[in-house]
Amino acid sequence: MGRDSDENKEPRNLNEAYQQALDKTAIVGITDLNGSIIYVNDKFCEISKFTREELIGKNHNILKSGYHTGAFYKDLWQTIKNGDVWTGQIKNKAKDGSYYWVQTTIVPVLDEEQRPFQYLSFRLDITEQKLAEEQREESERRLRMVADNFPNGSISLIDKELKILFTAGAGYDAVDFGPEQVTGKSLKDAVSPHTIVFLQENLSKILEGETLTQEVFTRNRYYQNIYRPIVDQLGNVDGFVMVALDDTENKKKALEIKRNNELFAIGEELAQIGSWDWNFETRKVIFSSNTLRLLGHDPAVLERSSQEVLDWVHPADRKMLAESFGKMLEKGTFDVMEFRMVRRDRQVRVFQSSSTINFARHEQRKHVIGVLKDITEKRKSEQELLESKEILSKIADSIPGLVMRYVECEDGTSRIQYVSKGAESLWEVTRDEIQADVSIVWNKVHPDDIMGFLRSFKRSKKSLTPWNHEFRILMDDGSVKWVSVIGTPKILAERELLWDILALDVTARKAAEIRIEKNLELLTFQNTQLLDFCNIVSHNLRSPLVNMSMLIGFIEDSADEKERKVYIDKLKPVIEGLNETFEELVESIQVQQDREIRSEHINIEESFAKIVAGFEGQITLSNAIIEKDFSAAPVLYYPPKYWSSILHNLISNALKYRSPDRRLNITIKTARSQKKVLLTVKDNGLGIDLKKHQSNLFKIRKVFHRHPDAKGFGLFITKAQVEAMKGRIWVESAPDVGSTFFVEFINQ
Amino acid sequence: MKSIKNLFLVDDDEIFTFLTKRTIEETQLVDQIKIFNNGQDAIEFLEKAAGNTELLPEVILLDINMPILDGWGFLEEFVLLQPSMGKRITIYVVSTSISPYDLERAKSISEVSDFIIKPITKAGLINILGSLSADSAQQ
User: How far apart are CA A361 and CA A373, in angstroms?
Assistant: First the structure.
């Protein structure tokens, strides 16, 4: 520059004036190609706070603030080294360390070859402007920081044309776009159609200065939108602030609470339960409407004074209720109360209330909350059940027998649910003993009856059909009772059987039955005898009488003396026969009537020997073999006369009806089983056709053989002698094979 | 010519058969009277005479109470024999029995025409035999 001013004198004044003007307005400096300062004007020194002497010869980077990057300086140097002009804003550091901003223009000074040999810089101080800009940026940054962190939604600045000037907020986290994507765009691109419709309708109101709110549900979220107009100092509105509060969580909670309350109300109604909240400080009670319905008061008025509520309580229960409340407040413990309430219609109902102190409200022991249930019906049916149980138990106890209900478990144990008083006198054990172990009942079953008892019991248990059985029980003193039992088994649970047992003392009835049975036996026996007697009269007595009357008729009608003699001669055997029959009958009747005849112990061997001796002649004549074996039962307890007669008749028959074709063999044996002795007389004689003669075998005057000695009396009297002592006689026989007579003697 | 050729008297009571035979003879309604002492003998005769109308009887007077085979036993076997007889045989039960059971039993057997309680009189015999001979005369 200096060189210019030296060489061009003519425009010197203009140059000087230009330089002067420049120096007054701009900061001017010249450096060499390396950046060493060659020239600075006063303003340079003024702003950099260096003296000219301090600056000349120094590199320009003495002013470097460190604000700009290496690339910034590289670009600058590249430009000017190429001979181009560089302009830009540079932050420099003054000598005192303060910073200043300069709007800089660097012009390379070119030599003849158009290569830069110096750099001339002009700077304008823009520090004030830059600071203001920095401050603005800072405040905008802060605003955005605040706005970006606007919780639960967004805050936006909208102009009259609904253009989004600014928008931010944490609410953008919940949507799939950010504020930068919508800033500068129309609100229509960012919000829900509901909002747009609302604004189209209400924008004029907002622009007139009104603040509006709107509830919006969009993108599955709830928002509360607030539109507040922006008013300048002159009162003009040129836009509005839109605050969108994301209310989703609250809304959801509110809905949940609402739903819970609805559910609770339905639950209360279904369960017939009511709830209440008693505040002792405010002396107010808040009910659910169902509670009031249950209590019989207006369900619409939920809040009641405690005095009113106390008036609803049945007068007799007020004191108790107050005391219970007092205790609960004192102790702070959960409690169940039962009390009566009087409904508006004067009906008295029983309620059960479970309550607890509500600690959650930070008003310790000032609140009691609870639920209420109408248990009138339950109490009534419980009372009825109790009464009917008492009645049943009274009835059961009045039954003269055992009434018992017990559960039989699979492991064999039993639980007695009920046992009646009558069990004690029938079974002669206490109820406590039965309670302790039910087997005490069944252990008393008579040993002789135990098999049948178990059989019938098990059958019933298996088929689950009623158990009906009669058996004896053996008392401790050895006496016996007859018991008739009816049991009903029922499956209670898996592997558990419920038994309802009723056992009655039927000893008297049984005794009567046994008597009747005996009487019936006797009657049957006597009836048979009467029938037999009728037969005897018909055949055995009437026959000779008929003959006699006919003979008498012939005698009367006959004129011939010789003929009459014939008839008279025929009368004699008839009368003799009648006499004989008559005597036999008398004998048999004596046997039948002779019930009291004395039994004696008979040595069978000895008596047999005597009887056989009487048949000696016949045995010798017929060459019969008689075998005997009395070892199994050598002694018989029987009337000796009958025994001799029975044995005599059976041996006599065997001898009489022997077969002419073979040698007679008679086997006589006795056998014993329990209290009975069985006599067997077996022969190989003619035998009897039992098909034809079974029914007449033991009847008087019945003969089955063409034997001259057959009279039909032996078996008749034998049967009488057997049956007189309650024994039995029967025969097995086959014609031409032989007969075996069996005689069973009882009470041996 | 007597209308009843053969009459069987089945009874073990000798006095009764003797007297009854005489009474029947006096009526002169029967040609021949055959006496059997028990049911077995009578059945055996009938078995042998089956089909021979000359030997078979028109009427049998049957006692109940007899040895070996009594009247009931006879009737049981007779029921089986009758189809092979080739002749109608009328049976009267003639018994001393006054038992209603015997009467009932006799009535239940269709082969038995009637039950006559002994004694049997001449008039009674004429009554029975007369009606029988009238029947056979009609045939």
Answer: 24
**Which residues share a beta bridge with A241?**
A157, A228
A40 contacts A24 by C-beta, under 8 angstroms: no
* Strand-pair category, A480-493 with A467-474: antiparallel
pLDDT in tens, A53-90: 999 999 988 999 889 999 999 999 999 999 899 999 99
Q: Which of A532, A537, A548, A692 to mutate to test the interface with B (most CBs of B within 10 A)?
A: A692
CA count, 13 A, side-chain hemisphere, A610: 11
The CA angle A246-A248-A249, to the nearest 5 degrees, is: 115
| Token output for A715 | 């078996």
Q: Which of A217-226, B48-57, B102-111 has the lowest mean pLDDT?
A: A217-226
Distance between CA A514 and CA A509 in Å, rounded? 8
| Pairwise CB contact (< 8 Å): B96 & A704 | no
CA dihedral over A107, A112, A113, A118, signed as positive or negative? negative
Domain tally, chain B: 1
Tell me the CATH number at B27: 3.40.50.2300
Measured between alpha carbons, how far is A515 from A696 in angstroms, rounded to an integer?
Answer: 31
Residue written as tokens 């401790």? A476
Which tokens belong to A363? 């008003």
Q: How far apart are CA A500 and CA A399, in angstroms?
A: 14
d(CA A32, CA A19): 19
CB A534 within 8 A of CB B99: yes
Burial class of residue B78, CB neighbours in 10 A (0-12, 13-18, 19+) = buried
Q: What does the DSSP 8-state code read for residue A208?
A: T
B65 — contact with chain A (CB < 8 Å)?
yes
Count of residues in chain A: 748
Q: Is residue A179 within 8 Å of residue A154, measured between CB atoms?
A: yes
State the sign of the Cα–Cα–Cα–Cα dihedral A646, A649, A651, A654. Answer: negative
- CATH for the stretch A253-374: 3.30.450.20
Q: pTM to 2 decimals?
A: 0.44
Tens of pLDDT, residue by residue over A389-439, are 888 888 888 888 899 999 988 887 888 888 999 889 999 999 999 988 888
Q: List A481's β-bridge partners, or say none.
A: A473
Residue A43 burial (CB count, 10 A): 19
ipTM of the complex: 0.83
Q: A378: part of which helix (H) or strand (E)? A: helix A376-398
**Cβ neighbours, 10 Å, residue A255:** 11
CATH number of A512-589: 1.10.287
Domain A382-505 has CATH 3.30.450.20: yes
Residue B78 CA to chain centroid, in angstroms? 12
The domain spans of chain A are 2-125, 133-246, 253-374, 382-505, 512-589, 597-745
Structure tokens at A26: 């701009």
B25 reaches A (C-beta below 8 A): no
CB contact B68 to A (< 8 Å) = yes
CA angle A738, A740, A741 (to 5 degrees): 140
B22 and A CB contact within 8 Å: yes
**Which of B13, B64, B67 comes nearest A703 by C-beta?**
B67
A133-246 and A597-745: same fold? no
CA distance A36 to B43: 181
**CB-based contact A554 B16, cutoff 8 Å:** no
Cβ count near A653 (within 10 Å): 21
Instruction: State the maximum Cα–Cα separation within chain A, in Å, rounded to a whole number.
Output: 235
CATH superfamily placement of domain A2-125:
PAS domain (3.30.450.20)
Secondary structure class of A186 (helix, strand, coil): strand
pLDDT at A681 over 90: yes
Element (H or E) spanning A673, and its range?
strand A665-673
Strand ordering across the sheet containing A367-374: A303-305, A284-287, A273-279, A367-374, A348-357, A335-342
